[in-house]
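Have a think about this chain, tokens included, and walk me through the fold.
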Amino acid sequence: MFMLTSHVKIARIMIKHERKMMETQRKRLNCWEFKKCGREPGGAKAEQFGVCPATTDEKLNAVHGGKNAGRSCWVVAGTMCGGRVQGTFAQKYQNCDLCDFFRAVKEEEGPAYQLLIVLLNKIKAFEKYVQGTFIP
């Protein structure tokens, strides 16, 4: 139990550090700002449709300079695309390739754009780290 608590504390410290680094980078829009979906916490449509998981999922915080999964939303299940909530990553990813926000992030990031496999590996590593099973 103590070990898990320590890992959670370390993960929170890492998240705070990433947020500070993100603040020093130039402002990049997160998906909810770009799409104006209103599903961020306290947003106009959050009560009606629920808070979008991309706005709160910390596993990809600071990726592409975004807050939480705000600039890697295509990897997160349950985001709203095309006016409806999407299912699993596998079900939604084809639509993401057509998304104007997805394309904007790829263009803005240029060679620094992180490929899908890199993002999926980051999620796995974060989850293992929090569980205390991550071995660097």
